[in-house]
Write a sequence for this structure.
């Protein structure tokens, strides 16, 4: 009988063709799927494949998404995007999504991910795939090129850190606040070389989209990846998008599996949190900084512009107007999110309040796209990172918060508690 | 043994200050001019081939962009010694043959000190103070990747071996 294993260890062992693995083992894994985008993808891997004189090991297991330089703002970005199209054509990559949204969101919307898969992504927010019960982690371009050439990659089996949440989330508090809390407790890099597995009653009742936010932001903890055991909520989500999958019962940690550590969090006393510049771990309750004026409020990125995130922003903004002197930029995470939010009235609510609709893509989050900041400007953002200079000028300041709190700041003109807006909401 | 001048940096040096997003579109040479400019103005002009970086916790946190390691290599940085590294950065650096050394403490090392580094024994000697630091032993496969000159030459060797054993 194989040794008791965590969910991650089971997936790694399966991908490595081994009965079981132990933390610290260095193993070679067969990759079920490789995803890359326009920035770290074809333009960086193509020269390597040429040098090696090899093609792509299995074009059907490769997904390419153009999301960083979209839409092109100058000849340079247009050339990068054109290069992606040409490369996909010449390498017979059918799974190519051109300007359809952010890779981590598109990957799930298009049913590429199934529980138990071992997936690499050419982006640090690849842990988002853990919400489906995949072991999915981010790699750089050379690692990706090696995967494309051989279909495999090496991995040092990480320890599993259990993050257990109990209690019910209050009004105006969400997965983003849970992760800002985790960043505050663990520190950025607090889960380096470990997998974060989210467990506990709060997680068990959390919607799939919110689980994506949890796994997504394990990148900020420095984790190898984040993962959640797939359950009936996962199954319901996968069925709703037409994914065909096997039984879920295999994909959970054994009751007697060894966790490196289990941290306990109480959702019931969690307040809306804000990460002040320049680290996601500089977290404080929103009421401690509620006079900070903002120039820009940004709802965007894989972390903070999924359908649920737009619903949260709309719940606050319903019947209100964005304050004078504040610009509220809204970049839905995918065209599908925009389409659904249009159909259910959410987009109308946001636009009526004064939100400015931006293209779907990574946009201003990483300073690549439209919506960047100039010297001394202050932005409150539903994104994941507030590193110095990330969203533009080195002297700009980015505060990270939930879509609720970003929306509330847009109305007030300064950072403020979103809960009073929700108590009076009639949505 | 060759001696290396130290650049001393703090904790959580992220990929965005190493390779700023606004310059990611262009060439690696252009990007390298902006490496660390947000926190260490003039770094790109002053750094010399053979220099090393010594830093605190979580060096290379953040993005998967390999350019964060590439610009340092291009500017001449030959090794990074830190208390811990971002996981993706760690792989990226070894993949391009930039060795990283993890140490318990960086106390006693000052900017401008001269270090010698023995990659075989992971032993670091501060020429200015005489202080010796032993870094964590590197996994065998990572040493092998660095010795090959990076993951790509390493793969080339492997593919050539396979060709030899299984000629088509």
């Amino acid at each position: 009988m194989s040794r008791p294993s965590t969910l991650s260890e089971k997936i790694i062992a399966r991908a490595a063709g081994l009965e079981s693995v132990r933390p610290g083992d260095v193993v070679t894994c067969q990759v079920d799927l490789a995803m890359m985008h326009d920035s770290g993808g074809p333009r960086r891997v193509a020269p390597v494949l040429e040098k090696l004189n090899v093609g792509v090991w299995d074009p059907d297991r490769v997904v390419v998404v153009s999301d960083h330089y979209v839409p092109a703002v100058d000849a340079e970005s247009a050339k990068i995007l054109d290069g992606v199209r040409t490369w996909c054509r010449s390498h017979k990559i059918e799974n190519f999504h051109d300007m359809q949204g952010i890779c981590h969101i598109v990957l799930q919307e298009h049913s590429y991910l199934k529980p138990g898969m071992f997936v690499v992504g050419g982006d640090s927010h690849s842990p988002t795939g853990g919400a489906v019960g995949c072991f999915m982690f981010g790699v750089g371009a050379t690692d990706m090129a090696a995967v494309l050439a051989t279909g495999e990659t090496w991995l040092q089996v990480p320890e599993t850190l259990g993050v257990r949440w109990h209690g019910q989330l209050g009004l105006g508090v969400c997965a983003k606040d849970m992760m800002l809390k985790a960043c505050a407790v663990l520190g950025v890099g607090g889960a380096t070389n470990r997998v974060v597995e989210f467990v506990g009653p709060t997680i068990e009742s959390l919607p799939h989209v919110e689980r994506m936010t949890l796994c997504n932001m394990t990148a900020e903890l420095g984790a190898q990846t984040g993962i959640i055991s797939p359950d009936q909520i996962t199954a319901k989500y996968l069925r709703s998008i037409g994914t065909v999958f096997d039984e879920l019962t295999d994909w959970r940690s054994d009751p007697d599996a060894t966790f490196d550590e289990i941290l306990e969090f109480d959702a019931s006393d969690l307040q809306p949190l804000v990460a002040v510049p320049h680290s996601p771990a500089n977290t404080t309750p929103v009421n401690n900084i509620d006079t900070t004026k903002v120039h820009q409020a940004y709802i965007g990125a894989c972390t903070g512009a999924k359908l649920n995130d737009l619903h949260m922003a709309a719940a606050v903004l319903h019947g209100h107007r964005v304050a004078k002197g504040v610009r509220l930029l809204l970049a839905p995470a995918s065209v599908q999110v925009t389409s659904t939010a249009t159909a259910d009235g959410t987009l109308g609510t946001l636009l009526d309040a004064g939100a400015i609709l931006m293209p779907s893509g990574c946009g201003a989050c990483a300073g690549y796209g439209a919506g960047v900041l100039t010297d001394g400007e202050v932005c409150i953002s539903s994104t994941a990172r507030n590193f110095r200079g990330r969203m533009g000028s080195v002297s700009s300041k980015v505060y990270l918060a939930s879509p609720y709190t970003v929306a509330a700041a847009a109305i007030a003109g300064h950072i403020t508690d979103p809960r009073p807006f929700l108590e009076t909401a009639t949505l | 043994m060759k001696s290396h001048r130290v650049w001393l940096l703090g904790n959580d040096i992220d990929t965005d200050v190493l390779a700023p997003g606004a310059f990611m579109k262009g060439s690696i040479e252009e990007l390298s001019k902006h490496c660390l400019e947000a926190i260490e103005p003039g770094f790109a002009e002053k750094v010399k081939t053979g220099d090393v970086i010594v830093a605190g916790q979580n060096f290379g946190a953040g993005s998967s962009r390999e350019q964060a390691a590439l610009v340092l290599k291009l500017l001449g940085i030959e090794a990074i010694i830190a208390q811990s590294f971002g996981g993706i950065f760690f792989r990226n650096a070894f993949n391009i043959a930039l060795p990283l050394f993890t140490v318990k403490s960086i106390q006693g090392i000052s900017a401008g000190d001269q270090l010698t580094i023995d990659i075989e024994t992971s032993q670091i000697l501060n020429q200015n103070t005489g202080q010796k630091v032993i870094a964590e032993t590197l996994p065998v496969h990572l040493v092998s990747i660095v010795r090959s000159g990076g993951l790509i030459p390493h793969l080339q060797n492997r593919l050539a071996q396979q060709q030899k054993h299984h000629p088509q």
In short: The longest helix of chain B spans residues 151-165. Chain B has a mean pLDDT of 94. Chain B has one domain: 3-165.
